[in-house]
Amino acid sequence: MKKFLIIALISGFTALSTTANAQMCDTIADFCGKTFTNSYISDGQSYRALLIDDQTAEFQTTFYGGTQYRVSACSGFEEGALIFKLFDSQGNLLFQSNDFGNTAYWDFKVESTLECKIEAQLDGTYSGSGCAVILIGFKE
Amino acid sequence: MNIKQILPGLAVGAVVLLTGCPSTTTTDAPVVAKPVTVGKLKQFGGKIFSIPSPIELSLLIKESGLAYDAEILNKDSKVDQYTTTAQKALNLGIYGADLGYTSIYERPDASIKYMRSVRKLSDQLGISDAFDNKTIERVEKNIENKDSLLVLVSSAYRDCDDFLKRNDMQNIGALIITGGWIESLYFAVQVSSKKPHKDVMKRVAEQKLALNNLLEMLVLHLSEPGVEDVRNKLSELEELYQGVQINYTFVKPVTDAKNKITTIKSKSEPVISEEAFKAIATKIIALRNQIVE
Predict the structure, then answer these.
(1) β-pair type (A67-74, A105-110)
(2) Model confidence pLDDT, tens digit, residues B62-83
(3) A137 CA: distance to closest CA in chain B (Å)
(4) Where are the domains of chain B?
(5) How many Cα atoms occupy the beta-carbon half-sphere of A19 within 13 Å?
(6) Which domains are present in chain A?
């Protein structure tokens, strides 16, 4: 009976924690979206990952020539909890947010279309949630 | 996971427990579906690929001076003829791209019609949370304001993407994104066939990169109805895209820290023959027409 109770409690807390993480990620995504002013249009997608310690999350995207993009990166409700980096398809580093105080957003003016990779990692010095959210918007 | 990460979860969980279940389904499922971890590398949302917004291509079409053409849009009256989940999801993407196109060209009457089609399909797919009455009201209120409309529509599609990921419905999300991508490409090849424009044709060639991502995304959902069929058709398109070569040269970017902006100066140039362009255009038109019929 005791064993059953412990298992039930652990399962309950795991489910609650998952639900809570979902809610927290939603709130972080909303918070992150605030870095988009009306001049930036969302690409219609939301990129999320639950990160632990020094794990790195990544995804590929295409930036079109002649367009200005905004990349927003959040993991919590204070600026700087998430470090993000941008690489081209050859692995050349184009930008890293930790060069600029872990800025929560940065704009990229793209002269020529390129396939790139965005990497994100928690900054251990912040009490982030573990939920990494990246949003991409473009300027009309 | 360290205690800092667990504590907020437990705290919110306790609040949920004390206040009863959330009223919507949006909080019932894990936020990140099936994360894939390889060593210290993790991919966003399990394995998510970013596909450019259909609105970007429509904006380029307008900026290129090409006139509004209602004939290239899917008829809103067809909305009731889509019966399977795959048809509904693909056409939700198509109507979303149509809504973006009419918004960019400031055609409020048409935008309202497409918004209704979008709403109807999202209701039928059980994802109406992203296109709820509040969103519809805001869209209708801003129907004359192109800039606000584009922001609202794109945000609604992002909410939709969030909802699908939370509720383990990524297969539907993949088909919606595919529908939107195909429709925007259809606009580009249709307007180019009537009035060839260098920038628009170049952008069609550059879709080789997005197509690779799209195919990889669809592969994750092959067991879901309708996905394999679309993937196979897009694989045929991929073969035609083998005729496109993209030459890339890295150039050091320039950063303006004060204005928080980096100019990416690398150069890329797609090389495509007229013959290859025509073959791609023909395939896109056929693929899109199969979806909307």
Answers:
(1) antiparallel
(2) 988 889 999 999 999 999 999 9
(3) 9
(4) 3-42, 54-292
(5) 22
(6) 2-139 (2.60.120.380)
